[in-house]
Design goal:
Elements lengths: L2 H17 L2 E7 L5 E6 L1 H7 L11 E2 H5 L5 H13 L6 E6 L4 E13 L5 E11 L1 H23 L3 E5 L5 E4 L1 H7 L3 H4 L10 H4 L2 H11 L19 E3 L5 E13 L2 E10 L1 H15 L9 H12 L5 E8 L2 H8 L1 H18 L5 E6 L2 E7 L3 H17 L15 E7 L7 H17 L5 E3 L1
Parallel strand pairs: 15-16
Antiparallel strand pairs: 1-2, 1-6, 2-3, 4-5, 5-6, 7-8, 7-11, 9-10, 10-11, 12-14, 12-15, 13-14
Helix pairs in contact: 12-13
Length: about 425
C-alpha cells in the first residue's frame, strides 16, 4: 500500500474514532472507472465488507459496493467529476435493503501531481442515521398500532380536545351512535348527549379535569338507576344507556379527554325487569305490598290529603274449595283487571296478599274514598264487567274498609290498621258492604 493511501486512511480512521463517520476518497482510474483510493473502517462497515484489513487501495468502486450502492449514488459521483462540484451539498441514500440509512456529503478535491497534471477526487463523508430514522419511525408505528387497537375495541372510544371537540371516534363508536367518524370529527361532544344533559356538561368536564388524579381509578362504573343515569344520544334521537370511563391526557401542553363508552342496553333492560318484578305481584300483575307501602310512605311525607281502602273477597275459601284453586286464581286476576281499570293514576291499586287488595287515593277525602269503594263493590256484586271465563261465571262479592289520613299523620301502619279494622267491621256486619274507619 502506498504512503499516499496510508495517510488518508490514518486521518479518516482518526475521525472515525471521534465522530464515527464513514469517510472515503473516490477517484477514477485511467479507464475512467470509479475507484476508492482511501477509506476508514466505517466505510467498510457501511458496504458490508468483512475483510477490510486485507484490502489494498485503490479498490474498484463496483467491486466494493456494487451490491449496496444505488444507481443514483454512482450517477451523483460521476456528475461531481464532470462539473467539479456537487449540485446539492448533501444526499440521502439507502443501503442494505433499507435496513440502514446513511447521509453523505460529497466534496470535490483537486490535486496537482508533480508532473503538473490536475487530478480530481471526491471526499465522501457519511453519517449513520439508522438509529435516528428508527426513532422517527417509532412514533408512526406506535400511532398505527394504537389506531388498530382502538378500531378493534368492542367498546366505543371517543376523544375530545380542550374545546370539547371530537378528535377520535372509533368504529365501535360509529356503531353505537349511528354516525360515521367523518360526520362527527371536529363537532362538539354535546352532539352525542341528550338535550337535558348538555347545559351543564362543560362545567362537569372542567370539574373532572380539576379533580382528576391519575393514581386513582373509579372502582365501579356509573350506575344506571334513578339517581345516577347515564345516557348517550343516537343519531336517530333514541337514548342509549351507557357506562363511561374517562381519562385525562396531556399532549404537548394541551389537554385531551378520552372516554371508553360501553353500551349497557341489555343490562339496563334486565335491571328494569328485575326492578319491575320486585315491585309486581306475579299472579295479577298489580303492584305488590312492598310497592304499595313505599307509595303510601312517599305521600305521607307531604301535607296532602290521602285515603286508602282495603278490599277482601267474601268467602274466597269456598270458591277455591268448590271450583278449585285455578278458578280462584282466575277470580283474583279478573278482580285485579277491574280494579285497575277504575283506580287510575295518580291512584294506585295493589294486591296486598291472598284475597286482599288495597287502593291508595292521593287527595281523596273520606266521602270521595267511600264513593269510589262502593262503586267498585257494586260492579262485583252485579258482575258489571266483561270477562271470558274458562268455566261458567263465578259470582262473588267484596267487603271494603276505608281510612282517611288524619292531620299531619305520618305513620303508614296506623293508617293501614284503621282501614283493616273497618274491613273487619264490614265482614262482621254481613259482608258485601263498605265501612269507614
Amino acid at each position: 500500500m502506498s504512503e499516499r493511501s496510508n495517510l488518508p486512511n490514518q486521518i479518516t480512521d482518526g475521525v472515525a474514532l471521534s465522530l464515527a463517520p464513514s469517510v472515503a476518497m473516490i477517484g477514477r482510474d485511467e479507464g475512467g472507472k470509479l475507484v476508492v483510493t482511501a477509506c476508514n473502517k466505517r466505510f467498510f462497515e457501511m458496504t458490508g465488507e468483512a475483510d477490510a484489513d486485507r484490502q489494498t487501495f485503490p479498490i474498484r468502486f463496483d467491486a466494493l459496493i456494487a451490491d449496496s450502492a444505488p444507481q443514483a449514488f454512482r450517477e451523483k459521483l460521476l456528475e461531481c467529476f464532470a462539473c467539479g462540484q456537487t449540485q446539492e451539498p448533501e444526499q440521502t441514500y439507502d443501503f442494505r435493503n433499507a435496513t440502514q440509512w446513511w447521509r453523505f456529503a460529497l466534496k470535490p478535491i483537486r490535486q496537482v501531481t508533480s508532473g503538473g497534471t490536475a487530478m480530481h477526487e471526491i471526499l465522501v463523508t457519511g453519517f449513520d442515521l439508522t438509529a435516528k430514522m428508527n426513532q422517527a419511525a417509532e412514533p408512526e408505528v406506535g400511532s398505527l398500532r394504537y389506531r388498530a387497537l382502538v378500531d378493534l375495541a368492542y367498546d366505543a372510544i371517543v376523544t375530545i380536545d380542550q374545546q370539547h371537540n371530537i378528535t377520535l371516534f372509533n368504529r365501535a363508536a360509529e356503531n353505537l351512535f349511528g354516525y360515521s367518524s367523518a360526520e362527527v370529527l371536529g363537532r362538539r361532544i354535546e352532539t352525542l348527549l341528550p338535550e337535558k344533559f348538555r347545559t351543564h356538561h362543560s362545567r362537569k368536564v372542567q370539574h373532572f379535569a380539576d379533580s382528576y388524579q391519575t393514581t386513582l381509578r373509579q372502582m365501579t362504573p356509573p350506575r344506571m338507576d334513578d339517581s345516577n343515569s347515564v345516557y348517550g344520544l343516537h343519531r336517530d334521537g333514541s337514548l342509549i344507556p351507557v357506562e363511561i370511563a374517562v381519562s385525562k391526557i396531556d399532549v404537548n401542553g394541551a389537554t385531551e379527554f378520552t372516554a371508553v363508552v360501553r353500551d349497557i342496553t341489555d343490562r339496563a333492560r334486565l335491571m328494569e325487569l328485575l326492578k319491575k318484578q320486585a315491585a309486581t305481584d306475579a299472579l295479577t300483575g298489580l303492584p305488590n305490598r312492598r310497592e304499595c307501602l313505599e307509595f303510601v310512605e312517599k305521600l305521607l311525607g307531604t301535607h296532602d290529603g290521602l285515603s286508602v281502602f282495603i278490599l277482601d273477597i267474601d268467602f274466597f275459601k269456598e270458591i277455591n274449595d268448590s271450583h278449585g284453586h285455578d278458578s280462584g286464581d282466575e277470580v283474583l286476576r279478573m278482580l285485579a283487571n277491574v280494579g285497575a281499570s277504575m283506580i287510575l293514576e295518580p291512584n294506585l291499586f295493589a294486591r296486598w296478599g291472598g284475597e286482599e287488595f288495597v287502593a291508595v287515593l292521593p287527595g281523596a277525602d273520606e266521602n270521595l274514598a267511600r264513593m269510589i269503594a262502593d262503586q267498585l263493590r257494586q260492579r262485583f256484586e252485579r258482575q258489571d264487567f266483561e270477562h271470558t271465563w274458562r268455566v261458567k261465571p263465578i259470582p262473588f262479592t267484596v267487603s271494603i274498609g276505608v281510612a282517611t289520613r288524619e292531620a299531619n299523620e305520618g305513620d303508614v301502619d296506623a293508617l293501614i290498621k284503621r282501614a283493616d279494622r273497618a274491613l273487619y267491621r264490614a265482614k262482621r256486619s254481613g259482608r258485601n258492604r263498605v265501612e269507614v274507619g
